[in-house]
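Quick look at the format.
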Amino acid sequence: MKSGFLAIFYRPEEKVLEKVLEKVLEEVTENQQKILKAILTNKNITTIELASIVGISERKIRENTKKLKIRGLLRRIGPDKGGYWEVVK
């Protein structure tokens, strides 16, 4: 009976977590999705390369990466020169 009791409370939390994750992913724009996919392919990708792949300006790339970092979906490891991107899963 004790394990059934725990399952009752655990499952709703899983559903809530799934809904939160779905909402976060829905709020990611198409350009931000392209940025994340490109970074997953090459963690050392530059802003210039991202701009070319996504088809937007370098300034817009910086704005979008900033938004992704604020949301906790993207992290910069190390300095601007010599560092790399990490997609937070």
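Next, a different chain entirely:
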Amino acid sequence: MPDQPTEPQPHRERLDNPGWRGDGWAMTTSVFGQGSEGDAPRHLGRMAGVIERVRSATFMLDGDGIIREYRANAEELLGWKRTEMLGSPFHAMFRSEDRDAADAMVAAIRSGDDARGELEAVRPDGESVPVDVHLMGLRDDDDHVLVFGYANSAEDLVRITRDRAVLDSMFDQFPVGVVVYDEEGRYVRLNRALERINGLPLSAHIGKRIREVLPGLDPRLEEIPDQVLETGIPVVDEQYGGFTPASDEERVWSVSYSRLHGPDGEVIGLSGLILDVTDRHRAAAAAAGARRRLALVNKAGSRMGTALDVDRTARELADVAVPDFADAIVIEIKEEVFDERIGPIGPVWLAPVRRRRVLVFEGRDPIPDPVRAEGFSAWATDPDISDRMLGGAAWHSSAGISNVAKEPIRAKDGTLLWEPDGGDSILVPLWAREALLGVVHFHRHPDSPPFEPEDIEVAEEITTRAAVSMDNGRLYFRERTTALMLQRALLPQRIPSLPGVQVAYRYLPGSVGAEVGGDWFDVIQLSGARVALVVGDVMGVGVRAAGIMGQFRTAARTLAGLDMSPAQVLHQLDELGASLSENHLATCIYAVYDPATGKLAVSRAGHPPPLLLRPDGTVRGLDVPPSPPLGVGGGAYRSWVFETKEFDVPDGSRLAFYTDGMVEDKGRDIDEGIGVMAALLANCPPDSLEECCDAVTDVLGITGDTSDDATLLLAQVQAIPADRKAYWQLDAHPSAVADARRKVREKLVEWRMADLSDTAELLVSELVTNAQRYGRSPVSLDLMKTDRLLVEVGDALDVVPQVRRAQETDEGGRGLQLVNQLATRWGTRTAGEGKIVWFELI
């Protein structure tokens, strides 16, 4: 416990004077912030709140340095109770080394000065407490001295000093703008960095709100701090833009605000950090723009050129560009692009053209079809722009498309397609393979951001991709048209009228996205009213496949004319395919229907089997032995034998021959397709082969988007009735010739074909005579009535006669010449161990 005084102090009784004591202590408490809040200014209350953050000991001394009052905060800081300290000398609060200094401070007060010193107080447990001591004296009219004192914790003062230094450093040196607002949102304090950001001195800010100081900023800037003051929810990195006196260009700032509270939780203001992020914002905007441009280029790569079609590619370019890149687009395509006769390079590609196809797209549906707009393109009549277009370089106009298209674009019927409205435009040539296909106008309206230099590169990139796709489509269209024309030219142009057989067919090339394949079919009239039905498919596509198909078809027709069996024909075609410069594989089915017997002979090489629809409505596949495709030839298949199988076909039956394109696609295997076709055939209209063809192709989806061409050949067969056929075996005697003439004459009268009797008798007489003279018995005579007269004369010698020119002195050699001159058609064929010479008359 501190030392107690040994004798009474002279001024003790004066302190007991209630009036003096009360007045003095009331003033003292007011100074320390413990008086009435209603009497003290508001800023003093806030100052007290700041002071209370420092631990202090408040006390009062008399003129002799005796402690007369000892407050509770002194008990808390120093540890001594009030009852222990009252009446003790002031120096008793400190360690012995500092007591002289304490007495000197009291002496200074008595001499009329204030006193301050850094001493170390002693707590009851002997621990030292560094304090900063302040003494202030009051003197009444009788020259009595009253001393008011307080001791602040030195540690707290150091902390407060350090914090203040940090705050001052932040305001004076921190490169980020720092601001403090009062509870009304008015500037209270800001640092030099914010002065530089705003371009105004401190005096222009204090006491004003943001909009009063900086009217050119985003209105949201004032709403943000007001909202934080109202809700207490901090705002971090909120960005806004605008203009300040510090810069002529628009800047972007990041602001962060938090509400300030007093000791009792009351709102006393707002603190904020303001950072100029213009460069970061521009970099982020540039990066976002680069990402958007990259995404646009990727989008163009994935969406354009999906089909080898010029018009479709133009529409895809419009879909990619509008509205993500441009507000509107005008695509001009030269009319020559659509002419397959013109090659990729030549002066015509560089010369301005009067006709053009234009696609206009402005954030809505494009015009229904690309139109031919009359008039020269503006770029073609402007030398500066024309030179850039012909040089393959883009042209940018910040004045808008009005400088490019001097007049509105109209269709031939006068429909307005494009109305210039200023804005910003980029013209890019559709340049591919040294050919200028047209020009693309990218346009942004006046209220949209103008194109940037990087946008020109994007426009060039997507336009180049579109140009290549268009040129590929043009070249493909030309090649496909050529192949299709060749394909159609090589296919039958007219199906002849055939006895006992009605035919309908469909040849369907692949869709626009696919090349023409090598499908073919043929219907060949043979001797004896027989009909050969052929369907084949060369593996491959394009002009090459069409050319190979032509070779196979020509060879098949030639071999059919030799009256070979189906197996023999396929064998020869197989040798043909293997003998070409490159092995060309093909599938083929070859069938011969004989209406005289009602039999069908079939052989196939790697081809789907035919389907037979009987008159009772049942459908089945014909079990024809399979063989490898044509062109395999030798090797492991040298021992393979093409087989011919015969079937009895009921009258009125329908036969279906087809290629795999009819029954196979990505979503259906060939067996499933054959099953579907069989069901369709069973439900076909019974009276029309053409309607049956339509029904099959429509349901199988061949008219849609297919990658392979398809062929369907339907044949309805009917055997020749017995009353329209006649057969005789003639005697090996010269009188047989006269007998043959008589039989022919009588039969023709019966068949009401007497007008053909004279010619028929003459030719039969010649052929029977030759058979008896140069052939071998037995000799046969066959007659058959269809839409014409068919006559066959056969003998047992397999030596085929040849037509020769008879000399004037020759007795013979004129029979076949007469046949050649008078018959509509004639020919010879081997039959078993003999031969047959036949002719037809109409």
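The radius of gyration is 57 Å.

See the schema section for token definitions.
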